[in-house]
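Why does residue order matter? Because the sequence determines the fold. Keep that principle in mind as you read this record.
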Amino acid sequence: MWKSKLIFKLILSVAAIATSVQLSYSSDSAVAESASSNLTVESGQQNDTLEIPKLALTGIGIGVITGLIISAFWYQKYRQRQLHSTTKIDRFREEFGCGSLADYYLSKSRNSPKSLTTPNQEKIPAYPTFSESLGNPNSSSETDNLAAEPTPDTIPNSLSDSYYKLIEEIVTTTLKGQVRAKEYIYRQLIENVGAGNGEIFERCLSDRLNSTQSELHKVRISPDLFQRETPELKKARLNRTLKALQSIESEWERVQKEKRNRAAVTAAVQQILTASEAYRFSVLLQIIDPNQNEVFNQSQLQQLAQELKEAVSADEDFQLKQEIEQLAIAIASGVESYQQLEASLVSWIYEPTKTSLELTQSQKKQEPWASWAETVNSPLTQILFSALAEGISATEVVVCQPYINIKDWVELTIIVQRMQQSLVTWFERQPYDSKWGTSASIATFLSFAVVWCELSHGFRVATNIDRTKREELAKACFQIVLQILRTFAHRQYFPLYGGVFAFFGRDALQDAIDYLDTPLKEVEGTQEKARILTLLGYSQFILGKYPQANSFHQQALEIARQAGDQPCEIANLNHSSRVCVAQKDYSQAINYSQRALILARQAGDRFGEAHALATLGYGEVFAAQQTERIEPDIYQQSIEYLRRGLELSEKLRDSAFGVNLAAHQTQALCYISLGIAHVALEKPQAAIEYLEKGTEAVQFSGDKYLQGLNFLYLAESHYNLNHLETAVYNSCLGMYLLEQITATEWRQAAGLLTILQSKLGNEAVEQVIVNSRTNIIKFIGVDGYDTLWKLLEEYKRSH
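Structure:
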């Protein structure tokens, strides 16, 4: 096309030159005529002589110009007729750059007897049609004169041509507005892309996308002479083409994902069928592990159940057939039961609870287990949820079962696992209250982990179950615990410095956490294990089990160092410092916190730095209390550390993702340490100001040891200010909380309460406690309130 344009312009240029020459000659003739009139020769003879050549030359010039213009238009028409009479390939290639669309028109002329040749161009081989390529990928082109059986090298080329044409047909149909849903594209891909040819199709699609994007970038803004479409129109056309190609890419990803899902289900069926009866439950748990790259969804679980039934439908082994069918029924029932529960999974958050007077009141934290027990239709799951709603351990549910039916436990596993995953997802998607959503997600992970931990322990101690079966079920339940904690360890809000442990109305800090110790030792050292051990060490510390806590933190410290997880390493140094303070090893506590501070500053871990400043000041405050003389200068450096840690933690609290537990834990530690320091400096009013701020922060962190210390030193500060009744109230709370975690400081609180009895009298102290019953129950419950006098009597007997 560009050649014809060039020739056309050349003809017009010649015509223009001829016209210029003619006009120039006419001008010269006129000048000569004017000059000749002044000559003395005979004028009549002169004019007759000049008139004859002028007329002749004018006629010749007009004829040449007319001939050139007619030739130009004739040549242009000739080129157009030649293009339309031969092939459209050059027009598409030269003007639109659509090589594959040109190939389509070229392939249609395969049966045409006319030779597809253009000037200065070799004969172009014809491509097979789309239907022939799909029907017989190995077919050859007649124009290439190949053998009937092509070589393997020709097969990819033939498939590529077919797939290029398929892509163009889908694009053309889309641009015409004939594709109303992506389902059409999906069906075309399913029907026309053969198995095992996915890589060839992906390469063709990638080439088409790249060429379209490249052409879109090359569109020039300034218009060209004789252009067929403006740059704006061309851009619009290319953008529509690009969107159509992206739709094909999206649907192809859907096709590939479905193929992977089917392959995963088929592989899962084989794993279950080849596993022994004792390990079949564990194999199923590995298949549905949420930490795998391809996580099974509800549709895949239903497909798994269906394929398991089909796999043993013709099996002659009756026992195997019955076991697999029961397993398939359990999987399908679990999915169905969860689907019925899913609609009301979080409805308990918005439902008011009834009082004894049948009145309703809204509560911020509600118990979900009872609500779920009313909704679920699985018998065993209903029993478990009802027991948890009444505060009964899951261990007792296992022990009280008359017999164990694997089908029931598989169904329960499917239901509870899907519930836990859905709850976490829902809590994480709460943009209006990210702090609440994050704390609820943490509580969900920990609460469900403890439930499975209790179930695991129940199988270990149950005597009414076969030993082999109960050991396998105990390991399977603990396997779920590890799966939950591994998923939790990858979350950005994983609590390296604490957590919320009682969101579901039950105290998750039970002795059941100990059951994680022995099985977790069998897990290889990984980054996830280091973080899980950090959480368990912190839990043991809150329970007052300092040797166990120190063991967890030392293991986590070593694994985190090997894995290069510096935030986890810094956290365990800080936790180890806290444990040493509780064990009265103040020099080692200061050593750990100094190492944590240096490493945090080197790594840029701002949370670790804030907590290291807090633990360093905390350790130095307690170390300073051991000196016989109280010097203000001794506390000055530790107070400075605490103030810097407090300032840094306040800055980080609001800038962190959601609610940052490390910031609240650090604030609680700083406030309480500053309060203790001012108690030692005999500044009770300043101490009360810090300790009252620490009361709110420590409740959020869930650290019972710090909470007990906070009430203890509040009692001492109020005692020093002669606020004796307030001192009684705080002494009771500090005594109970510290005794519950076996911290020796509970005796310090009990001793202060005894002194208050001697000053106020037993009846006055008893009346103060009775008057404060409502506030005391908020912190330690009814059982804690009833235990106060027993603890005081125990202290008096042992003193």
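Confidence is low (pLDDT under 50) at residues 28-52, 83-154, 354-366, 499-515.
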